[in-house]
Design goal:
It is a single chain. This protein has helices at 15-24, 47-57, 73-80, 92-108, 128-136, 147-157, and strands at 3-8, 30-36, 64-69, 84-88, 113-117. Strands 3-2-1-4-5 form a five-stranded parallel β-sheet, sandwiched between helices. The chain is an alpha/beta fold and 160 residues long.
Amino acid sequence: MTKALYPGTFDPITLGHTDLIQRALGVFDQITLAIAKSEAKKPIFSLEERIEMARELFADRERVEVVSFTGLMYKFAEEVGASIVLRGVRTTTDFEYELQLASMNRTLKRDLETVFLTPDVGLSHISSTLVREIAKFGGEVSQLVPPSVEARLREKLGSG
């Protein structure tokens, strides 16, 4: 069984993320969506809220497991039995950063591979950072996040 670890803060989870997971299920037997605590990024949603949103979104997908993690990603991959790290890349800037991370992870754990997937062309402009900014100022995010996430953003930010 090929198990992939998809780590990130997912604050909030976007249609780009869900697209990547859906397509990755065609390649891997199991996807572990690992939500990082990541207080340094000052998330708008708590770790518990981010986990809850992701679990709601993937409740009907038995091959997607949603968990939290802290610490070094390569060690967590080992803990959950993942031999692949799944990463999404939208731009060359993303790729340069992700390549650096992948190289460091391979230095630390030789048998940990990183697989890069690109989002659907219609979703390549979406980032959680941009979604947060748009939502903070009351902008329309319905084409960027699943409906349940949009509702939580509006509730959290008091915009609608």
